[in-house]
Write a structure and sequence with these properties.
By secondary structure, the protein is of the alpha+beta class. Helix content is 34%, strand content 17%. It folds into 2 domains: 4-124, Alpha-Beta Barrel (N-terminal domain of MutM-like DNA repair proteins), CATH 3.20.190; 135-264, Helicase, Ruva Protein, domain 3 (Orthogonal Bundle), CATH 1.10.8. The structure holds zinc ion.
């Protein structure tokens, strides 16, 4: 599934190829991945694509009705597009007028036309952008939950845009076990994790994302970042840091790849709790 770097890559490509263009007509085929196909058919024709942005794992095609008038934010409208597992949104230049086609074989994607308060409310459901979040906000969002750090990184209401690949890569880089509780992370670890996450996401954007299945950008080109994966998909292979074999466990229903030596399991805390209990009991028996 495309994550932040892949969606950013597609959005940048579309910004170059379709921003500023007017939508003449909309043709819908299968519509089961659309929130409200009738609204898309009715509202989108005649609008101009002002710009294409990434929002978490979504793309936002910001639409304007009249290019001369600068419309107030309350009347803002956008086509929200999620690429799902196999979605592809790309311009097709062969025909006149040009076509912007969304194809999605497995239809796990989502498309919705949203405007005004509905658009604002939809965007508010998501957490902070991992590339823009401050160290303080990042720490607060993670340490306020006892959920496991891997699950927190995947939770789009905590941070928007991180998926399985970049969660595993940043945890490996920061030396944090994926099953560790968010509330148990020290500020030093949180700072290291945020730094690792941002560095990895920026590098992946530079390399136009990871192509692990069939991801291609708006020009039909695969990304290159998969060559830099250090944990994700490397079960049984040697850790690039210490040489131990990378392991795979299931957390929050997803595969998590980690190094058992560089990313220590959170058992130690459990042991400390048990030994305190024992001491307590010993004291009671003395009394
Ligand atoms: Zn290691």
């Amino acid at each position: 599934m495309p994550e932040l770097p892949e969606v950013e890559t597609v959005a940048r490509g579309l910004q170059i190829s379709v921003a500023g263009r007017r939508i003449v007509s909309v043709t819908l085929r299968k519509t089961d991945f659309m929130d409200d196909p009738d609204t898309i058919e009715r509202e989108v024709p005649g609008t101009q694509i002002a710009r294409v942005e990434r929002f978490g794992k979504f793309m936002l095609l910001r639409l304007v009705r009249d290019r001369a008038a600068s419309e107030p934010e309350a009347s803002s409208k956008a086509l929200l597009v999620h690429l799902g597992m196999t979605g592809n949104l790309a311009p097709h230049f062969a025909e006149q007028p040009r076509e912007l086609r969304y194809t999605d074989a497995r239809r796990f994607g989502r498309m919705a036309y949203l405007a005004g308060e509905t658009l604002a409310a939809e965007l508010l459901r998501f957490g902070a952008d991992p590339l823009e979040v401050t160290a303080e906000e990042f720490a607060k969002r993670i340490e306020s939950s006892r959920a496991r750090i891997k699950a927190l990184l995947l939770d789009q209401t905590v941070l928007r845009g991180v998926g399985n690949i970049y969660a595993d890569e940043s945890l490996w880089s920061a030396g944090i076990h994926p099953a560790k509780s968010g509330a148990k992370l020290k500020r030093k670890e949180l700072a290291r994790l945020r730094q690792a996450l941002q560095k990895i996401l920026r590098k992946a954007i530079q390399m136009r994302g990871s192509s692990i299945s069939d991801f291609v950008d708006a020009e039909g080109q695969p990304g290159d970042y998969q060559q830099h994966h250090r944990a994700y998909g490397r079960e049984g292979k040697k850790c690039f840091r210490c040489g131990r074999a990378i392991k795979r466990i299931i957390i929050a229903g997803r595969s998590s790849y980690f190094c058992p030596a560089c990313q220590r399991a959170p058992h130690r805390e459990g042991r400390i709790r048990k030994s305190t209990k024992r001491k307590g009991r010993a004291r009671t028996s003395k009394r």
